[in-house]
Amino acid sequence: MFRIALKMLFGDRGKYLGIITGIALSSILMIQQPGILISIFTTMYSFITDIGLPDVWVMDPKVQFIDDSKPLLDTQLYRVRGVKGVEWAVPLYKGSQRVRMDNGETVGCNMLGLDDASLIGGPAIMIQGKLADLHQPDAVIVDEAGAKGRLAKPSSTPGGKSTPLQVGDSLEINDKRAVVVGIARATKTFQSQPIIYTTYTRAKNFALSERKLLSYILVKAKANESPQAVARRITKETGMAARTADEFKSMSLWYIIENTSIITNFGFVVLVGFIVGAAVTGQIFYNFTLDNLRYFGVFKAMGATDRMLRWMILLQALLVGGVGFGIGAGLVATFAAATRDSSDLTLKLNWQLLTGSGLAVLLIVLLAALISVRKVLKLEPAEVFK
User: Fold this and answer.
1) pLDDT of amino acid 207
2) Is the pTM of this model over 0.70?
3) Closest among 334, 314, 337 to 28, alpha carbons compared
């Protein structure tokens, strides 16, 4: 009977392909949109992820997310170093600076000032040059996306192609000369601004004259100490906010979620995808069942039980659901792989997303099967033979 059910399904190719297409399009929307949303979320705390060595981030108590840094006095660094359980603590400058290009235009960039001695917080992947080259005079390191994108040298001819920054090129930051000594690979930030790395002392020199320039203090807990315990101890003894890396990521993420409509916008598209998929799939599958109603009537007259008929329709629904979801997920995975190295649009997939969208597709096909089963179970075989 199951083989007959499959023959019935494959025999009507028009409706079979229509159901698969509807499920595939629905799957694409339900996977792609959350995938893009996940990618956006990861950029919100990518700066914290890239600096993976510290256990604890110390900041002003009023900081709400990673880009909301409120400068501290340099003397706070020594207070943190004196807290029990702290193995080391280093300063970090994070601010926005303007870079003047050769054609006179200015580009906003994120500047990171690393501890002069250890360079903790620097990029993990260097494409050109070495991190230690930051000890050279006026040295800076530029991230790869910025070097090829907004910081690329403009063409001398109108409409010409710009030239990516290379080691040895110079930049002008707040009327001060900076020499590019390396190109690094960094995770794209939420604001998609170029990232410039330099030493803490040099970053203060590049920055405009301000009394406070210490953005964050990066702390490593001792091996026998819990990062959470050290963070609470720092907060108690210094009055500053100390959070573990995971706590800081979570805080940054929830700030964006609570203060923007990003979840609502993406969620609406996913909901539309689910509704459209359910409507299209349910309608086509129901019409398919109506067209084959006479066959189900014959099966009932020959002694097929209601349970057997339910399993036949469920098999048909699960098959088209699995094929449609496989096609949709495969297309989205192909798109994600093609845009993996793009600096403009990326899409991240994980097993939770695929599982959730798979369950949504399963719900769609089960609803379609339920509607069709009711029609079959109410069918009287005598009506078919009339």
Assistant:
1) 82
2) yes
3) 334
DSSP state of 316: H
Q: How far apart are the first and last CA of the chain?
A: 24
pLDDT in tens, 42-99: 777 888 888 878 999 999 999 998 888 888 988 999 999 999 999 999 999 998 888 8
Read off the pLDDT of residues 81-96 as tens digits, 9 standing for 90 and up: 999 999 999 999 998 8
- Nearest alpha-carbon partner for 216 in 229, 196, 200: 200
What does the alpha-carbon distance between residue 291 and residue 317 come to, in Å, rounded to a whole number? 15
> Interior CA angle at 30 toward 336 and 351, to 5°?
60
State how far the Cα of 127 lies from the Cα of 142, in Å rounded to an integer: 10
Q: Identify the sign of the CA torsion 134, 135, 136, 138.
A: positive
pLDDT tier, 19 (very low <50, low <70, confident <90, very high otherwise): confident
Asked if residues 182 and 141 have their Cβ atoms less than 8 Å apart, the reply is: yes
Phi, psi of 123, deg, nearest 5: -65, 145
In degrees rounded to 5, what are phi and psi of residue 214?
Answer: -85, 110
Do 67 and 251 touch, CB atoms closer than 8 A? no
pLDDT score of 159: 67
294-335, pLDDT tens digit by residue? Answer: 777 777 777 778 888 888 888 888 998 899 999 999 999 998
Closest CA to 179 of 188, 190, 171, 187: 171
Return the CA Rg of the chain.
30
pLDDT of 226 above 90: yes
* Cβ pair 127, 138 in contact under 8 A: no
User: How big, in percent rounded to 5, are the helix, strand and coil portions of the chain?
Assistant: 50, 20, 30
Distant-in-sequence contacts of 68-73, Cβ < 8 A, 24+ apart: 68/255, 69/94, 69/95, 69/215, 69/216, 71/210, 71/212, 71/213, 71/214, 71/215, 72/212, 72/214, 72/215, 72/217, 72/240, 73/211, 73/212, 73/214
- pLDDT mean over 180-197: 85
**Residues ≥6 apart with Cβ < 8 Å to 373:** 309, 310, 313, 314
